[in-house]
Amino acid sequence: MSGRWRIVLTPLVILFCAACLCYALRPTPHVLRVGIFVGSPWGVPGGDIYGMLDESIAAFEEAHPGVQVTYVSGISRDDYSEWLAERFLAGDEPDVFLLLPEDFELYAAQGALLPLAPLEKDDAAFDASAFYPAAFAYGQYDGESMALPLACMTRLMFVNKTLLAREGIAMPEGRWTFDDFYRIAAAVTRDTDGDGTLDQFGVYDYDWQLAATATGAQLFRDDGRASYFAAPEVEQAVRFCMKLSALTRGHQVTPRDFDLGRVAFRPFSFAEYRTYKPYPWRIKKYMNFEWDCIPLPEQPGGTPHAPLGVLLAGISARTHEKALAWAFLRDITTSDEVQKSVLAHTQGLPAKRGILETAAPADVFGEGVTASLTPALLGETLDHAVTAPKFKRYEGAMLLSDTEIAKLVHGTVSFDNALNRLQKEVNAYLQR
Amino acid sequence: MPGNESLIGTPRAARTLAHRILLVYNALVVFLLAGFMSVTQQKIIASMNARAFLEDLPAMPLSPELGLALSLCALFVLWAAGHLYRRDTLPRAMHWTCLVIEIVACLACMRSLNLAYDGVVLLVVADLMHRYEGRNQGADYSLAAFAVHAVPFDAYTAYYVEPVRAVLSALRGGLVSLNLVLFIGYLVVILKGSHAEKQRIAMLNDQLADANLRLRAYAIEAERTAETRERNRLAREIHDTLGHALTGIAAGLDACIVMVDTAPDFTKQQLVKIRETALRGIKDVRRSVKKLRPDDLEQMPLRDALVHMTQEFCASTGMDVRLNILKMPAHLREDEEEVVYRVVQEGITNANRHGHAQHQTVTITVEQGRIYLLLYDDGEGAPVDADGRVEEGFGLKHMKERVGLLHGTVRYESGQAFGGHGFSLEVVIPERKAALSEGAEPDTKNLQQTEGNDVR
Predict the structure, then answer these.
(1) Which residue range is the domain that position A394 belongs to?
(2) What would the pLDDT profile of B163-198 be if each residue is shown by its tens digit?
(3) CB contact, 8 Å: A100 with chain B?
(4) Interface test with B, best of A87, A89, A103 (most B CBs within 10 A)
(5) B39, B42, B47, B54: best to mutate for the A interface, most A CBs within 10 A
(6) HEC profile for chain B?
(7) Taking the model in full, what pTM does it have?
(8) Contact at CB, A110 and B65, closer than 8 angstroms
(9) What was the pLDDT predicted at B452?
């Protein structure tokens, strides 16, 4: 390069570099994008996640001047999974987003979620033990924290109070057992109009999986490569279901039986309870009988294991606002206000412990509801609740075992060593 | 042969061309594949199949624009680093840096292409081969560990219907194969080039040997020419000085012979003139001879010249020479001084050159009208034949000639004759006065003795 060119080019290059530097260092507003959906995560009408988060977003923006939190509204629960996948594929996924149970494993395995363990360790304000243990563990992948629980869901037992009163049976109070359950179911199962066919039943929709959860059976190894169907807990659960099924003498209990008030018990999610119990939904369903919910029956002498659903929230591994994203995620999962608004705006339960215990029953169960359930009992249920496994072949394995066990329960196949065979079959499927 | 390299068709030019083709082809393939993936990804998003697409992927793919931009950027960096790497003017550390950058860029390029195309590895291998021909030609081509976190290419083709999918897979296979073909072509060019280079070096070697031979002949020729020139100079000198004087003297004497009876006085005057001519002639001869004498002797007395010479020799060769002058001969003629000087010089030179001696003692003394020069060293000694006689070289022969002119004798013994080592030299030169008073008889005897000892 000759001297003259150098004289001309050097200032130009310096100018260009300075311009680039200025552009790079320009003050830009920090935008934190949040991925949420409209409606309830638990498949019931109503529910308002926006309402739940709007307050916390406003509070967050106030606490972090210059930060803007945005979200795309109008994505339904059913479209959310596809929407999130599209955003990931296009590379413009939100920084913090809700994770549906079916999506968590996928994104965690692909490394699309930011591992939270380092952030949790560095943050003195964070305490993992503040969550319900099963809910926190649900956000872990390979033993590493990938997402935090925002809200929980558990299942309860719907009780037809009118039917029990008619039969002169006292409503079970607090924790109750398989024996109570069977006794009541046996007592109410009968032919009321004398036409020779059963027309009143003990239970509808109570399946072996709920029973197995109650007995504390672990169906699969943590890595999802082996099953434990031959375990005594599973046998106990299946035998209990067989006993219950035998009561109906082959009669298939239908939803219509339930709706007409001819069934004493039915498993019911808390979200359904929270939706249909207060006004206005209470006038739409189950108008012709009194009903309430109690915890699911326990195995005598065991721990109250109830199934637990969890709504997770995670951070994208590609986020440019790591610190902000973490601060926001921590706020919405651990702040008492947001966790209380889970109760107020969604039909879910807070993932943080201690919220239920201090809340008024009206906040937990809805205005004007007189529940036989107490918030403390609900909290205790959540403390011991267990989540379903998340591994990829879980659905397939459950479908397979469900079919086989249904045959056992309905007595079309002899028990013998059926569970051993099932375990072999499922293992073969899992290891394929 | 610098002229050859600028021509098209030389190994280097062919290699550069082959490399360029390889590079352009790879850039094209990278662009095609990255573009294909980018477009497919956008189509998947548009047709709302993203969740199903992600379902089977082991890793999250890059966004369409980022994937395309990153792969092209990485390829550009790969090219730039490779270009620097192939230049021979960079320092060693920079070469390594370039290589590392190149490998990193290669990995980045493949990663952004989801490992659908690993042909860029061959670009790095090609660069490695460019610098280390025949040596580091191995490259780890297995990227299985890396593949765990990449989206398989089939996941992209799976989006399309069956006939298109088959065509796409075939196309990709074809691209990979063509790259291999190009790479092999490049290898062939390199190997051919390296063969031609070897041939060229062999040819240059031959030429060099030939030139060496001619140079040696020329050196001998030049030596001969110098010798002849010197001889001519001496002849001229003798002709100009001695010849001139002698001619004058002869002519003058002729005149004297004619005039001596008729005019004795005039003849006397004439003889005086002839004597002057003779003296002038002697002066001229001395002047000529002076030109042939060593510098040291010209500038300082013999003793100092000897001391100076041995000291200089010690300093330059590291050999320890002890000069032992017991008695310095007085009134030596210049030619005698020169012989003494030369004998000592030749003696210590031989001890160093042939005997590889570490120590040498030179003793000079005068005893009973004879000058003794005694030289002993602790070197290997001279090689001897079956009878224990030393093989005589040019130096010794020359020394004998010089000493013989002064009627002196030379004796020497090699330690090897007795199974030992070392070399001793003894030179005896009669002093001039003694030689004159004793006459020619001892000289003859000395000469005979010399001959009897050495020349057989």
Answers:
(1) 155-307+388-430
(2) 888 888 888 888 888 888 888 888 888 888 888 888
(3) no
(4) A89
(5) B54
(6) CHHHHCCCCCHHHHHHHHHHHHHHHHHHHHHHHHHHHHHHHHHHHHCCCHHHHHHCCCCCCCCHHHHHHHHHHHHHHHHHHHHHHHCCCCCHHHHHHHHHHHHHHHHHHHHHCCCCCCCHHHHHHHHHHHHCCCCCCCCCCCCHHHHCCCCCHHHHHCCCCHHHHHHHHHHHHHHHHHHHHHHHHHHHHHHHHHHHHHHHHHHHHHHHHHHHHHHHHHHHHHHHHHHHHHHHHHHHHHHHHHHHHHHHHHHHHHHHHHHCCCCHHHHHHHHHHHHHHHHHHHHHHHHHHHHHCCHHHHHCCHHHHHHHHHHHHHHHHCCEEEEEECCCCCCCCHHHHHHHHHHHHHHHHHHHHCCCCCEEEEEEEEECCEEEEEEEECCCCCCECCCCCECCCHHHHHHHHHHHHCCCEEEEEEHHHHCCCCEEEEEEEECHHHHHHHCCHHHHHHHHHHHHHHCC
(7) 0.63
(8) no
(9) 37
* A380 lies in the same domain as A401: no
Note whether A320 and A232 are same-domain residues. Answer: no
Q: Measured between beta carbons, which residues in chain B are less than 8 angstroms from residue A112?
A: 60
Residues of B with Cβ-Cβ distance to A90 under 8 angstroms = 41-42, 45, 63-64
Residue B54 is nearest to which of A89, A91, A317, comparing CB atoms? Answer: A89
Which of A82, A85, A110 has the CB atom closest to B59's CB atom?
A110
Sketch out chain B's domains with CATH numbers: 2-207 (no CATH), 295-454 (3.30.565.10)
Contacts of B149 in chain A (CB under 8 A): 111
- Inter-chain CB proximity A110 and B57 less than 8 Å: yes
The distance of B223 to chain A (nearest Cα, Å) reads: 53
Q: ipTM higher than 0.90? A: no
Q: How many pairs of residues across A and B have Cβ atoms under 8 Å apart?
A: 49
Q: How confident is the model at residue B5 (pLDDT cuts 50, 70, 90)?
A: very low
What average pLDDT values come out for chain A (432 residues) when binned by 10 residues? 74 88 79 90 80 87 90 89 92 92 89 92 90 92 92 90 90 87 92 86 91 91 89 92 88 87 90 78 72 87 86 93 92 88 86 87 76 83 89 88 89 85 92 86
Q: Which of A91, A110, A111 sits opposite B66 (nearest CB)?
A: A91
CATH number of the domain encompassing residue A61:
3.40.190.10
In a shared domain, residues A375 and A331: yes
**Best mean pLDDT range from A313-322, B417-426, B445-454:** A313-322
> Which A-chain residues 41-80 have CB contacts (< 8 A) with chain B?
none
Closest CA in chain B for residue A108? B59
A85–B50 C-beta distance less than 8 A: yes
Q: Is residue A80 part of a domain?
A: yes
